[in-house]
Write a structure and sequence with these properties.
The N and C termini lie far apart (116 Å). The protein has two domains: 9-131, no CATH class; 136-174. Strands 1, 2, 3, 4, 5, 6 and 7 form a seven-stranded mixed β-sheet that branches. Helix content is 50%, strand content 21%. The protein is elongated. With 193 residues, it is an alpha+beta fold.
Length: 193
């Protein structure tokens, strides 16, 4: 069974198309795929341009509860966005925001930097604060102590039941022998009138 020539031709065109896209993505150091993902999100995501002294590189960001959050080198980074700062702009049909990596701050559209702080450290502190276990109240400590006592009592009761069950089993096996030995014995009190 031979494959139809139209399918063979479509396969070769698809191979050329995907090869070209892969080559474009490699030449642009991942910008093409990040841009495509932001473009397809229809405004939910935005492009983050990280400015360094030697070169600029890009990340996919998202605004969550007044914070710009994006992933950089497998680590989340979080910047606070004030409503009066003009940091967003549109280019290539998507929304962009610039971040100055040296000053750890957002860059306004007039190229001045917003007051900055150490964003990776802030994200780390934020995650630790959210995941930190809450302090236990006195009532909770008492409940946990009582539950521990109940658990200890239950373990002791189970141990005693097992011990008593073996004693009862031993007693149950020896009772028929006692009854047999007592059949021939005379009751001295019953014989006296």
């Amino acid at each position: 069974m031979a494959i139809h020539p139209v399918f063979v031709q479509a396969f070769y065109y698809g191979l050329v198309l995907f090869g070209t896209l892969a080559l474009a993505g490699a030449f642009q150091r991942g910008f093409f795929w990040k841009y495509s993902k932001v473009r397809v999100s229809f405004g939910k995501l935005l492009m983050v341009k990280i400015r360094t002294p030697l070169r600029d590189y890009f990340a996919i960001g998202e605004v969550i509860e007044g914070f710009l959050v994006y992933k950089l080198h497998k680590e989340k980074v979080r910047y606070s966005i004030n409503s009066d700062d003009k940091v967003f702009y549109r280019a290539l049909a998507v929304t962009w925001i610039d971040v100055d990596e040296e000053k750890h701050g957002l860059v306004r559209t007039d190229f001045s930097t917003v007051s900055a702080f150490d964003a990776p450290k802030f994200e780390s502190l934020n995650v630790r604060a959210l995941m930190k276990p809450a302090e236990r109240t006195l009532k909770e400590k008492i409940i946990i102590f009582l539950l521990g006592l109940i658990l200890l009592g239950t373990i002791i009761a189970i141990f005693m039941c097992i011990k008593n069950a073996s004693a009862v089993n031993t007693l149950a096996t020896s009772i028929p022998g006692w009854l047999e030995s007592m059949r021939g014995a005379v009751n001295p009190v019953a014989g006296v009138v």
